[in-house]
Design brief:
This protein is an alpha+beta fold. It has seven helices and eleven strands.
Length: about 240
């Protein structure tokens, strides 16, 4: 589908921690990564429900709203968490993610607002943009170490799109390194074992991904309306698999 993971995810709008951007700048040596450098980019693309301020922008493509869901059990949990010393916050997106509140969401009028709606629909009106669906990227095409195009497959036919200027690979945190490795960019020793000709030995490609690194706690409750009980409503035949957690 168009829109990538923004078409299937939980719609949570949450920027990273300020210190993480500083760490990325230090590791990469790129001065454009620190929080103060990326914040203006966030603000330019944003259309925030609270209006423009030092941390948020309005009029951008990426609509950010307060979510419309509230649960008694969540309100009770939030109150208990604050009693233990976890502070409440009204905004996770100011560079400090510490605190407790409902997430802001990428929605417009309560409906999912994905990257295709926000950015691609308008861009597709341009005469210099062609969107091709129903195809699968095979690999970037190289002449020596210079990328000159992309090979992709549609149906049973292989195609090559040649580039006049540059090729941008944007296939997500999982597929981007996979496509690089299939094209010969990655850990040279691994690629050779797999029978892939090495274009560039870059040992960091495909390494160190940590996805949704978090600690989750599960509790069983009685007599309280939860999302799980709603999902299982009307499924009496499978109720044994619908524990209230």
């Amino acid at each position: 589908m168009l829109g990538g993971c923004s078409s299937i995810n939980g719609m949570i709008y949450m920027r990273g921690q300020r210190e993480d951007y500083g760490d990325w700048a230090h590791i990469s040596g790129d001065p454009n990564w620190p929080w103060d450098s990326v914040l203006p980019v966030f603000k330019r693309s944003e259309d925030h429900h609270g209006g423009a301020n030092a941390f948020h922008g309005v009029g951008g493509e990426w609509r950010v709203e307060k979510q419309r869901l509230k649960w008694k059990i969540l309100e009770t949990f939030a109150k208990a968490a604050q009693e233990t010393g976890i502070p409440a916050t009204d905004d996770f997106n100011r560079g400090n993610n510490t605190g407790l509140d409902y997430f802001d969401v990428n929605q417009r009028g309560g409906i999912r607002w994905n990257a295709a709606k926000a950015f691609l629909r308008e861009a597709m009106k341009r005469p210099n943009l062609t969107t091709i669906t129903g195809t699968h990227t095979q690999r970037p095409v190289f002449e020596g170490t210079r990328c000159v195009g992309v090979e992709y497959r549609g149906g049973e036919v292989d195609y090559i799109a040649k580039a006049r200027s540059e090729v941008i690979l944007s296939a997500g945190a999982v597929n981007s390194p996979q496509i690089f490795e299939l094209s010969g960019i990655g850990n040279g020793a691994r690629l050779q074992r797999l029978g892939i000709d090495v274009v560039k030995d870059l040992r960091g490609v495909g390494e160190n991904l940590q996805d949704h690194l978090q600690l989750r706690m599960a509790y069983k409750v009685n007599g309280v309306r939860t999302l799980n009980t709603l999902l299982c409503a009307g499924r009496a035949s499978s109720s044994s698999a619908c524990n209230t957690r």
